Input
Amino acid sequence: MEEIKTDVLILGSGGAGLFAALHVYDNNPGLDVILATKGLIGKCGCSRMVQGGMNVVLNSADSVDKHFMDTIKGGGYINDQELAYTLVSDAPKAVHELEVKVGCFFDRAENGEIHQKAFAGQSFDRTVHVADLSGIQIIARLTDQVFRRQDRIKVLEETRGLDLLTTAEGDRVVGAVLADMRTGELIVVNAKVVIVATGGASSMYKISAPSVDKTGDGMAMCFRAGAEFCDMEMMQFHPTGLLAGQSRLSGSVLEEGLRGAGGYLINGLGERFMERYDPERMERSTRDRVARAGYMEIMAGRGTESGGVYLVMGHLGSEFVEKKFPGMCDRVRDVGKELSKEPVEISPTSHFMMGGVKIDRDCQASLKGLVVAGEDSSGVHGANRLGGNGIGESVTFGRRAGDTAAALAEQELLRPFRQEQVEEIKQRWLKFFKPTTGVDIYPIRDEIKNLMWEKVGVVREAKKLQEAISRLNGMYEEAQKAYVTNRTLRRFNMEWNEIMNTINWITVARMVANSALLRKESRGSHYRSDCKTDNENWLKNIYMKKKGEFEIETDIRPIISTRFSMEEIRKLNVQY
Amino acid sequence: MRVNAITWLFQRITAAVLLVLLGVHLWLLYMNNTSEVISFAEAKARLMSAPYITLYVLLLLFGLFHALNGLYTVMVDMGIKPRKTAIGALLAVGLGLFGIGLISIFQFIM
Amino acid sequence: MSNREMAVTPRFKTHSQVWSAVGMWAWMLHRLTGIGIVLYLLLHATLMGTSLIRGAEAFNATLNTLMTNPVLHLAEIALVGAIIYHGMNGIRLLLFDIGIGFSRQKEIFWVSMAIGAAMWIFVIISKLS
Amino acid sequence: MSSQEIKARIFRYDPEQDVEPRFDVYTIPVIKNMAILDVVFHVQNYIDKSLAFRCSCRIGMCGSCAMYINGKPRLACRTQVSSLGTSEVTIMPLPNLPIIRDLATDMEPFFEKWKKIKPYYVGKPELKDPVVIRPDSDEREFIDQMLDCITCGCCYGACSMVATNEDYLGPAALNRAYTLVADKRDSIRVERLKAVGRSYGVWRCHDQFNCAEVCPKNLVPTKSIQQLKKRCVMQKFGVFK
Ligand SMILES: Cc1cc2nc3c(=O)[nH]c(=O)nc-3n(C[C@H](O)[C@H](O)[C@H](O)COP(=O)(O)OP(=O)(O)OC[C@H]3O[C@@H](n4cnc5c(N)ncnc54)[C@H](O)[C@@H]3O)c2cc1C
Ligand code: HEM
Ligand code: SF4
Ligand code: F3S
Ligand code: FES
Output
């Protein structure tokens, strides 16, 4: 097994991972960085898929405080207010850096300044973008900058993190075991700091938006290593996922700007159903509400034949729609429809995890040497994320993670890893090659997706959640008995990859379901049909971490309200 | 070789010039030609005047450059390795043919 | 690094081409005709040169054999066709080189081919008559 | 053959075990809106689990899934089976790239060339803030359209010049170079222009247009390359600075 020593190991090449790599280098070009990613650099992850754009305060009529209030209002007021404030106050710096240093070029307004468009749930038009496919440019340019620094940033493509290495006391991370998926060989990386930026696990739902390589690996690794998690019940469903039957295209997001620009949502009966749910903001309401509204219409039998509702853009004029949303029009054309002319079938789609590893403003997790950024972390978005704050989080906290890692790497010594832990990890992931027969992983994978959709989905209730939890535990056992059909084939083995994905999905899904069961109220994107919103008792966050081998230890603590007090929140008494 | 831009440009210029020269040449050959078989005397008659001489010298010069540079391009496209040798060979052929061509034209004038 | 090693070991690649595009054929033909004309040029120059050096008689004799041979007449028609194609497509290429016509490359191809075909037919007719 | 099924001929090759590649034929039930990506996933998930291919975003944004499908490099995720107009599909790896296994190619040569043109922006030091450029000014020429490249390599696999000359930089890298050379904010444009002016650079392009023909983003690298050639010539005469 190959062993590498390095200063900083970064897992994931989304906005967070790439920006972190740049910042480690720019802080101290003498540091060695290894950037390991599950797909090809610059191509995998959701940052690449960002469509609408990024929220940032640039206009003097706007203010960081307004953006902050929008963020926590959208977040059901349970955000970690320090993190939310960090996001909004760092975002302008991040955009500045993207334009001036990284070389992005965001769309311009008539006056030649960066254009900012309307996004749902915001008090000011503050979303910067590149047409309707912003992520391509952000990630491509960041990748180019990583290439520029390749003397120090070593990129390992198609090399996935398997597990973190910890000290015997378990309070510090000292590296990770990776698998080069092209050769099937394991690699041990001994590092002073590990940055985890693998971007969540929302792909564990039947209808979901993210790229196929995001399967909760980072979260599951951190869980196994003993890190603390927060807000795991908070799963965002995007209201406008394209419906395309059984095809993998299903669930892909039609961007929020469509509703921002004035698109209508109608149900199978032709009613603009948002009137019933949020008459004031209608389609421009926050994602949680619109997604739930769509879901409820479908459940109430007012959906379309294939279980969706319609997105209508035609009344805005086909020329306008084609010009403003070329990417979306193309995507819809792939399923044989004209977005600019006819109604398109959509459904809520699992999109983003607000919950994740608990971090502080410097992205430091509860274990030393472990830095987490992007979707893998928690607290920034509370109970619901605003459109445009996701890539914002990814780049602002990616920058911070890089700064933190550089500082830590300068101070810390490289601590040895434990060979027996490496053996244990090796055994954990290579054992699937041993048996000649066993469980086929694909039916299990399909089952998780259905189970999560039906029982831990947009609308939840105690009974179903309990069922889901016990089934997930059972599936975990079954998945351990999975086997790789072609036992001698380690190279680019997609089945092996999927077995590991499935185990990580289950690991994260258990946290989600358990957390959802604990929060006996409705808030943000967590909607319990058996509980109302409870602003008296539930201005709290649920924390989780591993207990023993696989049990979950939970802790419920009041929210971190350093800027907008609980009294003020209670006074507003918002109901979800 | 750092003359890529120049040879590329020349390939275009010669192409444009050849377009005209070859046009004239073919026109003369097909339209202005009375007899079935071209005879030395006819050819000589045509080639005696200065414009014709210029035409053919230019045609020769530009045609050769265009043709041989074209061949060289094809060779580089195919990834030919000893490029210097190729250039040498093409230059030799080019100079040789230019010589023969000049002598031929000279024959008519004499 | 294992990733790197893979890249340097020579590995099998396919070189399947795209045959369904106009530009591909235009390029192939341009190249073929280009090389064809060069070969003709070489032959032509050698024949002319060698016969001329030997004097007017030799020249007339050579031309006589050449220009009365029916097969060579057909070859000549092909040669003129090749020159016309190469020239017409050459114009198309020159247009691109000065920055014109990228969005209309197929149409330009067909238009130049139509003109070229007309010219060729004209040449054939005038030759046969 | 019934319209409910398609026959997929899939290229199989394991460089460490097979001497020669082979084609395996699978019969696959057609589902609504089926993309070629769904076809290969179906085979891998339910028929032959050892099949190898690559995919990430599945909606045409990442450029991971380029394959040679029925005679053309295309994105598997954006090629609807119905659009091929036949019930027989031949799926091969992207041409001109070494094969890792089956349909998964090694993109390394593609990116090595991408790196050769110095693909990264190096801002002019005096530009401290995002520049003010009106959308109707011609400052950005047509760079903005050409920035949409998703580095899928379709063009690279389609260009015969890449097939015949291992060193040719290829359409995508040159297109990227153009977007930087024409970006007035950048400070190493001349250096970059010199890199593309080498004999393995722009001069190898002969307006084949296969790149434009197959580009899933409808880019026309040919045009970018012409712009570069023009600038190379200008630079030779000292007009481009
Ligand atoms: C379709 C879509 C549209 C979106 N649109 C917007 C928008 O308009 N505005 C907005 O603000 N947000 C948007 N988001 C959300 C936004 O994309 C995410 O919040 C953000 O990109 C997360 O960034 P990240 O860096 O944390 O992770 P990602 O960008 O997702 O990157 C994760 C990386 O980790 C890698 N990885 C995974 N597992 C492993 C492993 N085991 N080992 C090594 N590497 C691993 C992945 O391959 C990937 O490179 C959108 C999301 C989607 C899916
Ligand atoms: C009628 C006038 C002509 C025009 C307009 C013309 C135009 C061109 C152009 C523009 C090219 C460059 C192609 C490229 O780089 O992609 C070219 C290439 C070439 N030409 Fe011509 N040409 C003409 C006549 C000739 C003649 C008379 C010959 C032969 C003696 C010839 C031989 C070649 C060759 C061998 C090439 C290289 C082939 C290639 O690059 O594909 N051309 N021509
Ligand atoms: S230019 Fe087009 S075909 Fe080529 S890599 Fe970019 S997106 Fe793909
Ligand atoms: S296919 Fe190749 S030859 Fe030029 S026009 Fe495109 S790069
Ligand atoms: S999978 Fe991303 S482009 Fe096809």
Notes: Residues D 55-58, 60-65, 75-77 surround FE2/S2 (inorganic) cluster (ligand 5) (CB under 6 Å). The two ends of chain B are 41 Å apart (CA to CA). The CA atoms of residues 60 and 98 of chain B lie 7 Å apart.
